[in-house]
Write a structure and sequence with these properties.
The complex is a heterodimer of chains A (213) and B (217). Chain A is an alpha/beta fold and 213 residues long. Helices cover 32% and strands 13% of the residues of chain A. The chains are: A alpha/beta (213), B alpha+beta (217).
Chain lengths: 213, 217
């Protein structure tokens, strides 16, 4: 299952171009076209929204988390950046600051490690999937770099809010930009984006046991 | 015309006149409020944008990270007086980052942004509290928001020793995102060996990716 997430929606327009183009509309258009293309390649595809609604980040993540072996792809169009370029992002978490031990006297024992738990912390649910997400983002970015000249050759780590609670490999793709591109040019990115996602997932399946149906 | 109808029409006419007068005064009131809010914002900005001077100021070459193109940031060497006190030093740097980009195109933070407060916790956590403008006037997008956060983090990291992580607040509150995309509920690593190694992303966007603080949840 591939869960496509057209960002924003409703009163949250996302990026806005001078010509009135709103990110929320363009990403929905792109998501529908990408779904059509991926469905033709026999992928099962689900959209987190298929209208002008704005599900919360948690609702979007929960939808993806309901499926085993899903892949979450969040679609964005930026306000800035070189027009005609695209970037794939994977999530990034901070390094916890080690807490000093309370007992410091002679013979003091180090604090016991907290008991292992199979429960994931919702705010950090993506953390165990970072390596796979990073690999998938790199694979997708390599393809995007071919189709979108001037794009970086490797993916970028960033704390993207839409990704943090997803318990599957999760990647955000952002295309530039609402200010420098026409709506038609932006809509036309759906083909190469779909191809990059399909190639990336296919390559990931070959290199790992991640099953994507 | 019946007398009752005349009275009703008369009352309606009076109500319309009163409504029009009220509407006019309401509009003027709203306009005055908007003007006073803008004036207040300008006055606040003028006060907060004043250079901060401390007794321990020494003129040094600081590295301030501004945009170096549409999708990257890079350090610019700026000769400026900086305090020995890390809190004052950080405020001086962030003030310069907001107010003095070499060109408008190099700006990473909205011009109306003000630094409301800044403090450093005992564990090396820097807390920077910005005005609403940092969010409301920020162009939405992962790229623009990431460049904004990186410019703050890298500027502090390069010039204020001892900081370990950064927390960004907006108007004294924890914000979910900066402008709809980049997560502000966590911390951003500073001076951390755990920051993404250059090999992982240096080829992608050299000045941005390696510069990315280990941002966080």
């Amino acid at each position: 299952m591939i869960v496509l997430d057209p960002a924003h929606g409703g009163t949250d327009t996302g990026a806005r171009g001078e010509n009135g183009v709103a990110e929320k509309d363009i990403v929905l258009q792109i998501a529908r076209a990408v779904r059509e293309q991926l469905s033709r390649d026999a992928y099962r595809v689900l959209l987190t929204r298929n209208d002008d609604s704005n599900p919360s980040y948690d609702d979007r993540a929960a939808l993806a988390n309901a499926y085993r072996d899903a892949i979450f792809i969040s679609l964005h169009v930026s306000s800035t950046g070189t027009p005609g370029t695209a970037r794939a992002y994977y999530d990034q978490f901070s390094t916890p600051i080690p807490q000093p031990s309370v007992a410091t006297g002679p013979g003091a024992k180090p604090a016991a490690a907290p008991p292992a738990s199979s429960l994931a912390v919702w705010e950090q649910a993506q953390r165990p999937y970072l390596d796979t997400s990073h690999r998938l983002a790199d694979l997708i970015q390599a393809d995007l770099a071919q189709s979108f000249s001037g794009s970086p050759s490797a993916s970028i780590a960033a704390p993207v809010r839409a990704l943090r609670s997803v318990t599957e490999p999760a990647v955000a793709i952002e295309i530039s930009s609402v200010s420098g591109s026409t709506p038609d040019a932006l809509a036309a990115t759906a083909g190469p984006v779909a191809a990059a996602i399909a190639h990336g997932i296919s390559a990931l399946r070959q290199t790992s046991s991640a099953g994507v149906k | 015309m019946p007398r009752n109808l005349k009275i009703i029409l008369g009352l309606l006419a009076i109500a319309v006149v009163i409504g029009l007068i009220s509407l006019h005064s309401l509009r003027r009131h709203i306009q005055r409020l908007a003007e006073s809010r803008a004036a207040e914002e300008q006055a606040r900005h003028a006060v907060l944008a004043l250079p901060i001077s401390t007794p321990t100021d020494v003129t040094v070459k600081a590295e301030i990270f501004w945009a170096a193109g549409p999708d990257r940031i890079a350090p610019v060497e700026v000769e400026m007086p900086l305090s020995a006190d890390p809190v004052e030093r950080s405020r001086q740097l962030l003030l310069a980052l907001i107010a003095n980009p070499p060109t408008g195109g190099q700006r990473t933070l909205p011009a109306d942004t003000t630094l409301s407060s800044f403090y450093i916790l005992g564990d090396g956590t820097a807390v920077a509290d910005f005005s609403d403008a940092i969010s409301s006037e920020m162009p939405s997008g992962i790229l623009s928001e990431e460049m904004a956060v990186n410019s703050i983090a890298r500027t502090l990291e390069s010039n204020v020793p001892g900081l370990r992580r950064l927390k960004i607040l907006i108007h004294g509150q924890e914000a979910d995102t900066l402008a709809g995309n980049v997560d502000l509920t966590g911390f951003f690593d500073l001076n951390s060996a755990a920051a993404p190694p250059p090999a992982r992303s240096a080829t992608a966007v050299p000045p941005v990716a390696p510069a990315a603080p280990g941002a966080a949840h």
